[in-house]
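Reposting from the mailing list since nobody answered there.

I have sequence plus structure tokens for a pair of proteins and want to know whether others read the tokens the same way I do. The first protein:
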Amino acid sequence: MTTTLPTLAHLLAPILASTPAPHRLEVTFDDVTVAVSSNSQALIDTLAHYFRDFAGGGGATVVPVVAIEAAPPELDLPFAVQEREGGKSLKEAYAELPDGRVVRKLKTGLVFAFGHGENYAVGPCLQNDNQVVNFINNRFIELRLKRGALLFHAAGIAEAGQGLVLSGFSGAGKSTLALEIMRHGTDFVSNDRIMVARGDSGRLTMTGVAKMPRVNPGTVLNNPNLASVMGEADRKRFSALPQAALWDLEHKYDAFIDDCFGPGRFTLSCAMAGLVVLRWKRDASPMTASRVDLRRRRDLMAAFMKDVGLFYEFEDPSEASLASQDSYLDLLGDLPVLEIDGGVDFHQAAMACLDFLRDIRR
């Protein structure tokens, strides 16, 4: 027997009818304004504080998001669990509807529903505001990708309007390196996702995501600009641990760029001057930095190619979720690429990245 699945509007109608959402917030990422409505002023205040560098409207494109603070909703849908690579713990289940997708966070019960321009978050939003932040940012990512950009698993920094994309496999220290480079006066572009597109002029543009870097205790202890994010008790506790133990800690802090480096240092979009790929490892070998040709080093491409994930709505079910290596190579063209190998040394790597960027700009 075939079950007829509801539309988004029908599925959420009882919740939306009984829960007005009069509180408003507008944030603008480049030319896209996300207009958030909620039944919770506390949630709006939390999001306004988080996105304070991007407050206000005026974007050419407006994306509505409705966030309802409530108990985890019980939805009678045929959810499938999203498998993860490498045996990682399962985080999400999803169900496809005729006009969109519903994603349920397995741990928190928070539900996200989106499709055809409608975007909803329903459940314990305030307790899990980081997931709502990610949902808002994913709406912006989707728009950029639908306009032709490719998604990179990378951080980014910029100097004098010219940016570097800093890529590497998960845990390589992309964010830590970006924040180390920031100590030398650069701007911050993105923490973990970057969209790259080629404009009408033929120049590459890199666009980041309005998400603050989440840093581990080792990163904080080794970067004086981050001192304010860690309390004295944590500082004493973590300072007593060996460096190897600090690297693997799951404890994270949000590092707000304006608090740590001063106002006006978060630049969401700029020209892309080069790409850095981290291949280093935690050993005593010397760090090395050398330019490479990606067409001869396709083995490096897995470090930055990124699947669009569950929060991307395909207009055509036959669309591939991950662009091909050739697509990335065609986009990047003859862009300068720097490979950093050998042992981990964030200070030396920061200097190598700055030298690389400044050499390109000459």
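The second protein, same order (residues first, tokens after):
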Amino acid sequence: MKILIAIDGSKASGLAVKSAIGLAKAMGKPPTLVLMHADVPLMRRVAAELGTEGTRRYHQENHDHAMKSARTALKRAKLAFSEKLVVDDAGPAIAKAAKGGKFDLVVMGSHGRTALASALLGSVAAKVLSQSTVPVLIVR
């Protein structure tokens, strides 16, 4: 089984990691786990100011910060994992990665916003649910 765990560094994504660990421990054969962080693209002007290397470093630092607690939890659980950094809008990027990577399940957290806040701000979880062809486990 292949599980994609969407990470943004929030408490909600930490709960998703804990759920994925529980699922993995319950399986007879350890699943393939991939931690994915989708970082928001920089505005063109900012990216131009930073340059190619500066922009790459910026996204890598964001990725490392978001992954810190997830890495620790998975290492503590003695589970192997790999990581994926994508610079794109999170919802569509997660759905695309899940399908393209032939994952069996996406595990992600939800911040639990009200319906009005989600409608106004957009919800990554809602976008993934509406666009994914892969089953999605939302953890709150």
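Reply #1 (J.P.):
I read it the same way you do. The mean pLDDT is 91.
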